[in-house]
What does this fold into?
Amino acid sequence: MNYFASITDFFKPQKWGMNMFLGGVCILIPMIGPIIVSGWAITQLWGRGDEKNPSEYPPFDFQYFTKYLMRGMWSFLAQMVGGLIMMPVFLVLFFVFMMVAVPITENNDVIGALVMMIGFFVYLIIVLAMNFIIAPISIAATIAQDFVPAFNIRFLRNFLTLVWRELLISTLFFFAMSIVMMILGVCTCYIGFFAGFPVITFTWQHLLKQLYLLHLSRGGIILTRSPKLSDLPPSLPQALT
It folds into this structure.
């Protein structure tokens, strides 16, 4: 796993600044903006062979607006359903924690602060646990470009068995990066958020692809690749010739 390459590869294409700008503009589109940016990152990372140099990735192009939207849609839907399935568990744990925490923190600021810290770590554990389910679901939906194949229990078990450690580190790395981006966004009156969102989206897709390839190298299940991922814009050198 190359965690820092998941960030630096974004800046290797010649038009990375335009990618950042157009990706940030897409965030202003209600509902579908983040899906479009996700579809663009999927096109960059999943649509091309592993031999491609990141500097040759094609720039963001609004003429492929519909393709970006459709490529990102399946992963979005699968993650949403996966999150809804996990949500009752999250709500029950949160309710139990509040029932225990409120009585013991009443009129005691020190214990209250301690409970808040414990609550944060409990929240982090829950988020990590949810991502252990959502990440392989997202990978399967992206590769299949479909909804039903995303919920392949056999693949999910196989994937987590082979790369659970790397998935944990990737999730923590991405979580830390997201916090940094949020701080930069607030410090720049939220302008940094629009600039950083395409980078964050690219980084997560980059990490997911690395995890999938690592899982394959360890004898993991090969998912059937959708031909829809093969209909791609030309790479940058071809576009310039």
User: Anything to note?
Assistant: The chain has one domain: 5-233. The helical segments are 5-8, 16-26, 33-45, 65-105, 109-144, 153-187, 191-217, 236-240.
